[in-house]
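Project standup — Tuesday

K.O.: blocked on the structure for the chain from last sprint. Re-posting the sequence here as requested.
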Amino acid sequence: MKHPELTFLQRLGLEALWLVACGVAMLPYWVKYYLIENLLFALLYYCLRYRRRVVTENLRRSFPERDEAELRRIRRRFYRTLAEVMVDTINMAHMSAEKARRTVGIGNLEEHLREVRGRDWIAMTAHYGCWEYGSYWGVYERSQLLISVYHPLRNPVVERFYQRLRNYENATAVSMHESLRFYLRHREQGIDGKNLVMGLICDQNPPLRPDSHWFRFLNQDTVFFDGGEKLALRCHLPVYFVRMERVRRGRYRMWFERIYDGEETVAPNEITERYVRRLEQLIVERPELWMWSHRRWKHKRKDKDGDR
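H.V.: unblocked you, prediction finished:
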């Protein structure tokens, strides 16, 4: 996708931002994850109180059975996660293949490769842990190209910055508005003989449509993006839920759990339902790793007839 040209000052700002990010990324592990991360946590939690009201309200509605003391503990741990994800993201500015393997491993790599080798497939993930590290799938399997589908940012400098972070070895970022056309075009033409992996973050708040399907998610009526399900059914692609397991600060392990084999006959919205249930289970187990600062439930359901 072509981006509008940056002005001179915007290009200068982009290069300055990239230079700073690279400098921070090259610092020793303890400086990044104990000094800088702790400073960011104090800034977000105590000074800025970043979206404190949004986080608190989301937690209360999602876990009405938990008392206020427990919700405060989850909230505090979430801000720890948020600070760590910020450091993780900056860390991507200077990432060799060897460093990427140390940063994020794959728990069931051989099993997953046996299932998907020679096929295109869909990876459905969420804003859980450091989701950006999913870009490093390509350092493990060079016969596949990861297409990271994302929502473009309004700030052109930040947009270009994230493009640089996400366009890694065997990985390219594509706007969600261009993703279907991109996949269908390159599915026919091919890209250097590689199989294509559509990486979708499906837990964002999508635009509300007349035919939107509502799911009961974390005790609230919720709509989800359904593009992954539509693409899977149209092109007979297997779908995998990507689980990010936090090992320690700045270190993750990915697991791939198949939720659709590409051939099974399923009811409408069933694939998305399986994704929703798996994500909900993951959040209940480790709630601090999900992005509670999102205004996730802006849409309110009016008619409950006919949906789950």
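K.O.: great, moving the ticket to review. The beta strands are 104-106, 121-125, 144-150, 171-175, 195-201, 214-217, 220-223, 239-248, 251-260. The chain has one domain: 8-289.
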